[in-house]
User: Fold this.
Amino acid sequence: MSRIYARIAGIGHYVPPARLTNHDLERIVETSDQWITERSGIKERRIASIDENTSDLGYKSALKALEDAGMKAEDIDFIVSATNTPDMIFPATGCLEAAKLGLKAPCFDVQAGCPGVIYALEVARAFIESGIYRNVLVITSEVLSRFVNWKDRTTCVLFGDGAASYVLTASSEPGFIGSCLSGDGSLGDLLKFPAGGVREPASEYTVKNHRHAVFMQGREVFRYAVSYMAKASLKALERSGLSPQDIDWVVPHQANKRIIDATMDKLGLPHEKAYVNIDKYGNTSVATIGIALSEMKEKGLLKRGQNVLIVSFGAGFTWGAIVFRY
Ligand code: ACO
Assistant:
């Protein structure tokens, strides 16, 4: 029997229309367009409207991915949703997205920091390659603007809202060809959202002290991100039987332009081989890679047959990379 591969049949993204520029932020916290641009590469980010939740963004991107795949919601066997900013603790955002799609199918969430997208795609791949499901919808969506402390200039300037979805399908042609997932939970304190769970339930104290927001030791996260994104990329390439030079595009997690450049240097690749759109959207966590891929497809940059490396690092810490032939 010939091998079953998982292949991307469709991709789509949705970002809310409202833009928050660095100059807008200058009026909110003590910062400057120059500092944010030089330190991160970000110029503006999108902000969801008050009546838009993570599942709404995810649903809108899913419709676009289905259209791109030429499929209907009922063609989907399984939904894997990745987010760090769920609508609620439960039910899972994936279930809310399935309901919006009018789909009764198995659905659940993957929560693994920004690399939740890599983990979710790997879950989908495993179900497809094992022959259990044929068509899997992977939804990546975040409304980080409601999870940051707008008085903390070290974090609030970095994040944005957005969503992207992928339809993965079973194919006799590759497809996903190599990957690497990894993590180190002992470093979790460096990047966390401490309150609202069992350890620090919501209280007057947690609200007053902005405990329902992202806490990050940026310099440390930066250091680990560069090292582990490069390592994961090389491992995924090795498992694919490819070298960095065989890759047409690197589509990295968009957390900081300097992290991307340093990772490309470690891979020995020119910076131009990485697709970068952090200037327009900031860090949308799980959604950055899909927004980039979808935008590349719209621009005609992503073509069938190209070898693509996607790689991410984030809260957990978790990290991972996938090499696929588009
Ligand atoms: N505007 C102006 N000054 C600022 C700002 C700001 N928005 N933020 C910090 N500063 C100041 C700091 O207070 C500090 O001042 P000091 O020297 O007087 O103490 C100075 O700028 C330098 O601060 P650093 O933190 O050292 O700046 P750095 O060059 O490291 O850049 C940044 C900070 C952009 C956060 C960087 O460290 C980074 O990108 N880290 C990684 C972020 C990341 O990858 N997150 C990953 C995933 S997120 C997820 O998983 C959900």
